[in-house]
Specification:
Elements lengths: L1 E2 L8 E17 L2 H13 L4 H24 L4 E13 L2 E15 L2 E2 L2
Parallel strand pairs: 1-3
Antiparallel strand pairs: 2-4, 3-4, 4-5
C-alpha cells in the first residue's frame, strides 16, 4: 500500500478513487504511565510515556487505515492525515484518514 500526504504520487496516475478510508485507535495511558508522566511533568522536558503512546497509536491507526483501503480494492492512499483527541483524562483517540485510490505507473499498476 502506497501512503502519501500529497494529492498525487510522482510517476503514477490515479486510475480510480474508491473513497474515504480511515483507521481509528483509542488507547489508555494506564495508572502507572500517568504517575510516571506526572512526575516527569513537574521537572519539565519530554514525557516519554505519552510520546510512546502517541507513536504506537499512530502506527496502529495507519495499519487500520491501510486495511480499510485494501478492503475497498485500493492500492494507495492519498492526502493521508492524522487527527487526535483526548476522549477523557486517561484515553487518547487517534484517527488516520485519507482517500483510497487505485493508482498505476506508466508501465502498469503500482505495488
Amino acid at each position: 500500500m502506497i501512503i502519501v500526504t500529497t494529492e498525487t504520487i510522482p510517476g503514477c496516475r490515479v486510475r480510480e478513487v474508491r473513497g474515504p478510508c480511515f483507521g481509528a485507535v483509542v488507547r489508555s495511558r494506564g495508572a502507572v504511565g500517568n504517575i510516571a508522566a506526572g512526575l516527569r511533568s513537574i521537572m519539565g522536558g519530554e514525557i516519554n510515556e505519552y510520546s510512546g503512546l502517541l507513536e504506537e497509536a499512530r502506527s496502529q491507526a495507519i495499519d487500520r487505515m491501510a486495511q480499510n483501503a485494501a478492503q475497498m480494492g485500493a492500492n494507495a492512499i492519498l492526502t493521508m492525515r492524522f487527527d487526535s483527541a483526548e476522549t477523557d483524562q486517561n484515553m487518547l483517540e487517534v484517527v488516520a484518514y485519507g482517500t483510497a485510490a487505485v493508482v498505476e505507473t506508466e508501465g502498469g499498476f503500482a505495488r
